[in-house]
Amino acid sequence: MAPNWFQRAYWTLASCGLAYVLGLAALTYPAVQRNATYLHNINPTLWQNLSDVESFGFLRGQVTPFTVTTADNETIFAWHILPAHVYKEHQDQLIQDAQLSPLPYEEIASQQDKKNGIQLLLNDPKAILIVTFHGNAGHLASAFRPGQYQNLLGLSAPSQPIHVISFDYRGFGLSTGSPSEEGVTLDAVTLLSQITGHTMPSSIVDLTSPALQSLQLTTPSSPHSFIDPSRIIIVGQSLGTFVSTSFYHAWTLQLRRPPFKGLILLASFSSLTKLLDSYSIKGLTPPLFSPFAFYPSARTWLHDQIVDKWDSATRLSELVTAKDLPLDLTIMHALDDVEIPWPEGWKNWERCMESVGVDVAENKEEFQIWENEDADGGGKKVVRWERLRKGGHNKITTGEGVKVAVLRVLDGD
């Protein structure tokens, strides 16, 4: 006799409960946890060739693939992408000299007999560089990401060319290693150190990362030119907001290096631990930790098992309150983001404002801005919050909103 509906419902719920418990138990292991967080093993390079840039919507010679090597000997893969009008001007030579295999950054930047996009960037004092930090899973050319780069390149003009660099964190795409909070922060520091020509200072304040400390021993020297941080805008999306915030914090407050022109965060989270309290898969499931709502000690224990905390809210508040540090920060989120609901981005804005004594609890306007000029000449701080009506979690990167955000940074609005 077939089991009745009650028995079926019982065993279905019991199976779901068991799967949930086993899943949480597995996630207490760092390797499993990091695979679930970064999803870096979803790697389309197994069947996609990142050297075939035309298959991703770019032209032969428009993209220059390159690598940088970190202090802990990981190889980080990156793309430099030219704006169309600069490419058109040098098209014949770029096609003739196009490289398919990535070379080390310094080798490409120092080439005398070939033309490439990186040289055109370094030799143009008017050029602006946007460095993008992508989200989890895939590689730098997966899904909507090429569209994001093309969207940003669309802002370029002969009077102010805009170039784009994107890179894969360790363990993603063609980059070696496995991701961790410390590791991917080091990847970003290494990349931007190469581009800006920075070496480590003689003293490092409050720097606890062994990998970052090891950079103190490196002294890169090269005949090629560099680009000043004041001409670089950092744009992070989703997981990339964690990485870009951690990087910016390490770069300015730990390594005491000059700030960048702007930091734009799209679909950001306040921290990984707080996100897991409210995270729902595609908005279809209950929050991941909701069964522990009435068991605070169990929830605290689960929080303690998270190896990469990614506390962006704290780092951002420290950037906002840091003395003698100019800052141009934009926090942007879409109302229809079901992956990471907009209140997560709001928490970052709220934490920043709390740190400077501004109460925004009752102010839910879609666009808000806070400005402060240091009376002692330490520079201007600008923090913007913008909630778009549409854009979702990923399409926000290819919409007009992010272009306007970049223009605000460029114009100082």
Query: Any idea what the CATH superfamily is called?
Result: Alpha/Beta hydrolase fold, catalytic domain
Order of helices and strands: HHEEHHEHHEHEHHEHEHHHEHEEH
The total number of structural domains is 1
What is the averaged pLDDT score? 88
CATH architecture: 3-Layer(aba) Sandwich
Oligomer description:
single chain
Distance between the termini: 73 Å
How is the largest sheet built, in terms of strand order? 3-1-2-5-4-6-7-8-10-9
Would you tell me which CATH topology applies?
Rossmann fold
User: CATH class, anyone?
Assistant: Alpha Beta
Helical content, roughly? Answer: 25-40%
The low-confidence parts are 200-206, 217-221
Specify the structural class.
alpha/beta
Rg (CA only): 22 Å
Description:
The protein is α/β, with parallel strands linked by helices. The chain has a single domain (about 40-270, about 310-410), classed as Alpha/Beta hydrolase fold, catalytic domain (Rossmann fold, 3-Layer(aba) Sandwich). It is built from 15 helices and ten strands. It has a ten-stranded mixed β-sheet, sandwiched between helices. Helix 10 (about 240-255) runs parallel beside helix 13 and helix 13 (about 310-320) runs parallel beside helix 14 (about 340-355). The longest helix is centred in the first third of the chain and has 22 residues, at about 5-25. It is globular.
